[in-house]
Amino acid sequence: MAIAVALILLLAASVLFYFLSPWQLLPLASNWKAIDTTISISFWVCGFVFVAVVLFMVWSILRYRYDERRRSGYDPENKKLEAWLTGLTTVGIAALLAPGLIVWADFVTVPEDAHRVAVVGSQWHWQFRYPGEDGELGAVHVRHTGPGNPLGIDPEDPAGQDDIVIDEPVLRLPVGLPVELVMTSRDVIHNFNMPHFRTKMDVLPGQMSYFWFTPADVGEWQAICAELCGIGHYAMASTIRVLEVSEFDEWLARQPTFAQLQALDPGDPESGRAVYARCTACHGDRGQGNPATNAPAIAGMEPWYLRRQLQLFKEGARGTAPDDQYGAQMKPFADMLDRQQMRDVAAWVHGLEGSAGSATISGDEQRGRRLYRTCGNCHGADGEGHRIRNAPRLAGTSDWYVARQIRNFRDGIRGRHPQDPYGSQMIGMVQYLNDEEDVHDVVSYINTLGAAATGSGSTSAGGE
Ligand code: CUA
């Protein structure tokens, strides 16, 4: 009897939990109403079977309670009952599978008029590529990948010349137009999951996977990686921004094409030298930095990283958080520079050879070495930095500055701005450094990585 009551309570609680729980399907933001219908068909079939089976168990427990006077019968074959059970199960399974097959066929049958966007996953971020005016994506190959060409577009392929590479994890789409996402991975298996759009697909190295959908509303949503892909998996998120068609066209027209980026002036160090005159008061004439002015060593810094940070300061994505007093000191200097000056000064700073000086932070290097493994996945085992992972060089930087930036990321002083997606990724990544001791240990290990390491091919012009 107690078991029967327990089963009834379990049943009631499960049903109530479903209807009262806050975890319902997210509001739908695409055309895939059919996927919701499939999910609810599955739910009702499973729900009905669950209720029926539990009620049957309760009934059996009550009906066949132990009774001394009752004799059991033996009934090895019951054709009629078996026919019923087989029939009902067949209908149930068909109801579970058939709608999914129909919707799946639809999901991978791309309409003729769909425009294409390429999605590239890598540990641990997403990049996107639009086909440009010819509507055709250029060929890519891993042998073409490099600092100025993170997606490996074939420089010889005419179709790729007007391709537009978006080097930030923001997927912009026009509302109401069907889009086909063609996806591939640069390293391991990822999964591009857009829960509000009910779309989700594995992203595999060496293969293309694809699906299509039509964004239904203007707004902002999130895509996440739904395949455990390493230590930074949880930070592998991307924003989906659905815009009015005109707004989208305007934005796309403003983006430089692959050919334009390749032709960009890499910056003239001699002009940069004049621009750098304004920086010397704090950063030193050889870019060696100065703790007294809170200016980190920047000598040898990769041009792409310096340009990006200058641009972030200028746009107000860095140096504007209420508690970022040192960032606020930097901002007016970035405000003075136009894009060409940023290129020039970055080229000059890259050639500087000032050293950050002796270590100011000490800690347990062995412990720091273990903690650094997580950092090394992006910043390189020797702290050399990787353009392709958007990770700057750490070796040879001012240790006090690195420690402060870790704290800034952790405390929300840096990386919170929506225009700073890689900063926000760092917020996720530094969470594993729990206290000051961790910070000191990891920074003291970075100090051992030697200033000699230089960023991978960091002189190229490409990709802002
Ligand atoms: Cu990529 Cu998880």
Summary keywords:
five-stranded mixed β-sheet, single chain, binds dinuclear copper ion, 464 residues
Description:
The protein is α+β, with helices and mostly antiparallel strands and 464 residues long. 41% of the residues lie in helices and 12% in strands. It has 14 helices and 10 strands. The chain has helices at residues 2-20, 33-63, 79-107, 245-254, 258-263, 269-276, 280-283, 303-315, 325-335, 339-351, 365-379, 399-410, 421-429, 436-447; strands spanning 115-122, 125-130, 164-166, 170-174, 179-185, 190-194, 199-203, 209-213, 219-225, 237-243. The strands form 2 sheets. The protein has a 5-stranded mixed β-sheet with strand order 3-2-1-5-8, with no helix packed on it. Strands 4-10-9-6-7 form a 5-stranded mixed β-sheet, with helices on one face. The N and C termini lie far apart (71 Å). The model is unreliable at 451-464 (pLDDT under 50). It binds dinuclear copper ion. Dinuclear copper ion (CUA) is lined by residues 121, 124, 190, 225, 227-229, 233, 236.
Task: Chart the SSEs and their pairings.
Blueprint: H1 2-20, H2 33-63, H3 79-107, E1 115-122, E2 125-130, E3 164-166, E4 170-174, E5 179-185, E6 190-194, E7 199-203, E8 209-213, E9 219-225, E10 237-243, H4 245-254, H5 258-263, H6 269-276, H7 280-283, H8 303-315, H9 325-335, H10 339-351, H11 365-379, H12 399-410, H13 421-429, H14 436-447
Parallel strand pairs: 1-5, 4-10
Antiparallel strand pairs: 1-2, 2-3, 5-8, 6-7, 6-9, 9-10
Helix pairs in contact: 1-2, 2-3, 6-10, 8-9, 8-10, 11-14, 12-14
The structure holds dinuclear copper ion.
Dinuclear copper ion (CUA) binds at residues 121, 124, 190, 225, 227-229, 233, 236.
